[in-house]
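Annex B. Sample input.
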Amino acid sequence: MSKNVKAMNKTLVNLKYKSIIKKGLLNDFLTYKLRIKDSNTGLATLSYLMDYGQMLVDTGSNVTVLVIGIDNFKNFNERYGHLVANDILIKFGKRLEQKTKELNAVVGRLGGDEFIIIIKDLPTLHAKSIADEIHYLMNDETYEIGSIEKPIKVPFSIGEAFSTNEFPLNIAKLIQKAEANLYYIKYKNRIESNIIGEDVFHNQANQLLKVLAEKDMYTYVHSQYTAKYAAELAEALNLSNKKVEQIYFAGWLHDIGKIIISSDILRKPNVLDEYEYSIIKEHVVNGLNIIRNFNFPETVKNAILYHHERWDGNGYPYGVSHYNTPIEGRILQITDAFSAMTVKRIYRQQLSIDSALEELKENMGTQFDPELTKVFINLMKTRKAIM
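Annex B, continued. Sample output.
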């Protein structure tokens, strides 16, 4: 860690200290100090990095956020056990610190198998290549683990986001953007090599997503998160890697039918009327008609076709219920709704994570598969707890 970053860290702690002491809350300050370092890895905690990163943004610094995720980390748990997997986490985090020590960087634990790096004042051109540089530096690294005979490699992916003093973004948005980018990269790589033996994200599919982004950026961002949550839920359900990848891909494309809906309706700054809503509902069949031009697996098609059906049969376009909807469709029903509630829209603020989970809970057994919803709620609560 550079001298400049150490000075900034000290300033941040001192400011927090003075604020708390003024209120006569010394015990709160001691608690705050305990929150600075993750108890497992010794790296900075997410809450500390949020404070630090926001201070950089507020003081006019350029900020680069990298989110690093270990690929297929559950395989380490299954093959070597939780103690060895935990040792891998710790050593990987320390290696990240070593490889970024020449930068104005702070390395922290985002949660689970994900890490976060906040870098101060990288030149713009360097910021755009720093993820590739770190990946190059660490891709062939090996790790000595006591109970394993040979050193092992740890595959990983990196997502990045940038904020400049000309176009500042708050730190929460930066982290969300970097994490969404991470999942795009992680699952894109797996899809290209595994789903159907060819590059599924070929030029035509990429062009569709570009059109979607240009047509309605909310839908594009919402699709990123739908895909991310869907893959996480599919993994928690122990579905095969191929099925997880296909469901992730379906999450990206589930709203692709909206590219042929009028922008006036998509971007309307208040709630849709009955006619406009009927047009929006056509995006399911429109999307299926579009992707029929591609050689996508049935899992992808089913997830798109059934993502607006309901457990009680009151959904659309066909009104099917319960297990008549394939599991990929039931997964997308949950993650599509959760993403829609937690991503900001023009006409309403997003809900908090807790509020959105409560909405899911209240609609178990009516809108959503109750068992899958329980798994998803527990998954999100566990992720929040380890942050």
